[in-house]
Amino acid sequence: MIVAIANQSAIAANRFGFGARPGELAAIGSDPRSWLLAQISAPYRAPAELAALASGSLILSSFLAARAARAAQRKAAAQSAEPAQDATADPVKEPRNAVRELLLPHYVAQAAARTRIVLATEASFRERLVHFWSNHFAVSIDKPICLGIAGTLENEAIRPRIDGHFADLLLAVESHPAMIGYLDNQRSLGPNSEIGARVSRRRGAAAQAGGDGALLGKVGVNENLAREILELHTLGVDGGYSQADVTTFAAVLTGWSIGGGPGRYAEGEPGAFVFRSALHEPGAKTLLGRRYADDGMEQGRAVLRDLATRPATARHLATKLARHFVADEPPAELVDRLARAYGASAGHLPTVYAALVNWDGAWREEPRKFKQPQEFVYSSLRALAVAPDEPKALLAPFAALGQRHWNPGSPAGWPDRQADWDGADALMQRIEWSVALAARIGDAHSALGAADTALGALASRHTRSALENAASGSQALALLLMSPEFQRR
Q1: What pTM value is reported for the model?
Q2: What percent of the chain has pLDDT over 90?
Q3: Nearest-angstrom CA–CA distance, 299 and 190
C-alpha cells in the first residue's frame, strides 16, 4: 500500500521518534526515511544538558565512602554501651537516609536532563534508540548503588556508541560500574584466585583450631552478570547456552569490579571500573565450544566480542528492535531482514537501523504499538511545546503513570507489549493526567492545531469532529491526548 508523504512524515515522527514538535512535520519534508537515517549517520555530539552532570565515578566514589561511614557508624553504635542521646533516633536508619539524600539529587538531575533532551531534540529517532538500548541493558534505581549512577550508564556507555558496532556497545556497558554494581559482580570471587585461596586457607586454619571456618563467609563466583549477558543482552533465553556456560562465563568475569575500597587490595580510581587480578579465577576456560586463554581481563573481552557476532545474538536483537518499532508480534520477514543485516555487517548498528527504516512494512498507516507511559508523556509535551521548569515537576508525570526513569524493577527492563500497559487503572491514570495537563494549559493551545502538529493527516475525521464539538478548549486537548491515534504510534 502506498502511503502519502504527509502521512509518512507523521509516521517518522511518531513511530520512530518521540512525537512531533510544532513545525517538525514540515521540516521532515518529502523524504522521511532520509530524515531518520541522517540522525544516526551524523557524528556524535553529547547533548548540552549533560555538561552539568557529575560523572559516574565521582558519584559512585561518594556513595561508597558514605556507605563505609554508615557501616562504621552502625558498628560503633552496636559496640557502644551508652544510650543514644536522642531516644527517637535510629543509628542504622539515619545513615541509610543520609546515603539516599546524597544520591537522590544526582538521580533527579540525570532524569530531568534526559527529559529535557527528549523534549527539545530535533533528532528524536536517535534519542529513541538511546532509550531502547538503555532499556535493553537495564539497571534499576531500586538497588541503592544504582540510584545515583543509572543515568551515567546511559550517558557514558550507551549514548556515544549507538551508531557503532554492537560489540563496542556491549563491552562498554558490561564494564560500566553501574552494571557491575547492579549485578553484584564486584562481589564475585574466584575460589582459586589469590584472594580466594587466602580466604580458603584462613577458613581451614580456623577449622583446625576448633573454630567455625564458615564464619569467614562463602568463597565463590557470582553468576548474575554472566547470566544476564547471555539471557538478556546477547544470545537470548533460547540462544543455545547451558548452565555450565553460565558458570564458566561467570568465572571468566571474576575480577571485573569497581575501583577504590579499603585494605591491601584497594586499587584503581574510586568509583570507576577496574580489573582486580587478585579476584580473577585463573586458567583457560571453554565456553560455548570455544576455548579462551587465561589472559586476565582480555579473557572476558574476548568472550563478549564473540557473543556479539553469534547468529543467536543477531536474531535476539533483531526481534527486540522489530517488536519495539513495528509490532508486539514482530513480523518474521522483518526479523529475518534485520538479523541478516546484522550478520552481514558484523553487528554494525546503523546498517541494522537502515534495514528497519527501509522496510516498507514499517510505514503502514495502521498504528500497531501502544505508547508506554514515558512515550505518551514525551509526545504530549512535545506536541504542546510545554515543560515545567522545576525538575521534580518535570519528572512527576512519569512517577504518576508508573514508569519512572531507570526503574524497571528487573534486569529484563520495561516490557514492550500493549498488554503490559493498557490495564483499566493505567488508562484511568492517563485520563487523569491528560485532564490535569489540559486544565493547566486551558485555551492557550488549539486542540485542532495540536492535532495538526502531532498527527497531521493521521488524525481521523472522528477525532477532529470530537475536538470541534468539545465543550471547552481544555476538554478538546484532553480528548486529543486520549484519542486512539495519539495513544498509538
Answers
A1: 0.93
A2: 83
A3: 14
